[in-house]
Amino acid sequence: MNLNIITYCIYLPVIIFITVRIGWICYKNGELFLKNLFKDKAIVKSINNLLLLGYYLTNIGYAIITISYWETIHNVVEVISSLTFTLGKIILILAALHYNNIFLLQLTHKHKFLKQ
After folding, report:
1. d(C-alpha 79, C-alpha 87), whole Å
2. Average pLDDT over residues 47-71
3. Is residue 58 very low, low, confident or very high in pLDDT (cuts 50, 70, 90)?
4. Which residue, 89, 88, 73, is CA-closest to 9?
5. Quick one: pLDDT band at residue 112, thresholds 50, 70, 90?
6. Domain coordinates in residue numbering, the chain
7. For residue 19, what are the contacts with CB-CB under 8 A and spacing of at least 6?
8. What residues contact 30, with CB distance under 8 A and at least 6 apart?
9. CB-CB contact of 82 with 66 (8 Å)
10. Do residues 18 and 91 make contact, with C-beta atoms less than 8 angstroms apart?
């Protein structure tokens, strides 16, 4: 049996769960963070929805690219190694993107506040 198919069958549900769960947590908690930065509720809702949409699109694109470049897997050890490396890499990338968004939003807010 082709071990790549088994790896994909494990990878896809895990990456979907990670994407949806972390996206929802960041969406709910990010709304509180954005309310502290911006007073207008319409802007907060719009920015939060755009961040969630960008997050989902980034994850879907990365998951598709990852699957298309996956090397051939020959044994169970390679399945586990490939899954842990790929999932670990995407989790680290998402953390970096998340903290980058927080930093840029705070920097933008401070810059706007200093100009007034």
Report:
1. 12
2. 89
3. confident
4. 73
5. low
6. 3-115
7. 55, 56, 59, 60, 63
8. 48, 51
9. no
10. yes
Per the prediction, the chain carries an average pLDDT of 86
CA quadruple 67, 58, 102, 18: dihedral sign:
negative
pLDDT digits (tens, 9 = 90+) for 16-52: 998 899 889 989 988 888 888 788 888 889 989 998 9
Give the pTM: 0.76
10 neighbors 18 (Cβ within 8 angstroms): no
Q: Which amino acid is at 80?
A: I
Do 71 and 8 meet the contact criterion of CB atoms below 8 Å apart? no
Report how far residue 13's alpha carbon sits from residue 88's, in angstroms, rounded to the nearest whole number. Answer: 15
Angle, to 10 degrees, between the axis of helix 3-37 and the axis of helix 76-115? 20
Q: b vs e for 2-16, b when ≥16 Cβ sit within 10 Å of the residue's Cβ?
A: eebeebeeebeeebe
